[in-house]
Amino acid sequence: MVASSGIMSSYLNCITLSTGHCRRTPRSEVHDETLALLVPWLNRAVETGNVEPLPVPALSHFGARAIKDIGLVVTIYGPLGPHMTGHPHSGKWLPLSTLGIAQRSRESADLWVSMLAHFGGKPGITAPGAPWAAVAIHATLGGYPDALQWLTDFERCLAWAWISRHRAAAPNRCRRCGYPDGDDWLDGGETCPHCRLVQ
Ligand SMILES: [Zn+2]
User: How close is the Cα of 170 to the center of ligand 1, in Å?
Assistant: First the structure.
């Protein structure tokens, strides 16, 4: 299945690499206010490349680092050593989970291979149709049992935030030359293949 790149999908496939469990989550599962909180936070996290405190006050002693390469890869961290609940942590971190997000079909194959190469997965597992979010759970998550209560939901909201942010940045036509959106767009769909304007 190949999602059309010009139309925002109303579903996101969330797959867990270790089990192969895949769930289609509709956009309606994520509140607009949640996206309004997460989109600017995610943009900032991509810019800084640092582990940023999660933008939820009660969870701000947890953090996440977002790296935009092929799609987006976000690792969520728990504080290691002394820390205060609800206060940004400045010490060391342990990774809880890593989320790879492919919005478009053209990002899917490379990101999928990269995620499996780094984190492994259930034998024979195949990528769902884009857009998808693939979750790798790290063994260190076992030391943060309270995170199990919110992590899956947070990952899903993050994935929707990225997709929403990406759609906002990429118009259906090039802003300069009017070239239509399609699978020939460059840099994950942000650069016009005709005039090379980064949208
Ligand atoms: Zn153009």
Answer: 12
Residue count of the chain: 199
4, part of any domain: no
Give me the number of domains the chain comprises.
1
- Which structural domain range is residue 92 located in? 11-171
CA-only gyration radius of the chain, Å: 17
Residue 181 belongs to a domain: no
Tens-digit pLDDT string for the chain (199 aa): 333 334 455 789 999 999 999 999 988 899 989 999 999 999 999 999 999 999 999 999 999 999 998 899 999 999 999 999 999 999 999 999 999 999 888 899 999 999 999 999 999 999 999 999 999 999 999 999 999 999 999 999 999 999 888 555 445 788 899 998 777 877 666 788 999 988 7
129 backbone φψ class: left, alpha, beta (φ>0; ψ -120 to 50): beta
CA dihedral 144, 118, 3, 163 (to 10 degrees): 50
Centre of ligand 1 from the C-alpha of residue 165, in Å: 20
Amino acid at 27: R
pTM: 0.80
Q: What spacing in Å lies between the alpha carbon of 6 and ligand 1's midpoint?
A: 15
- How many angstroms is it from 181 CA to the middle of ligand 1? 10
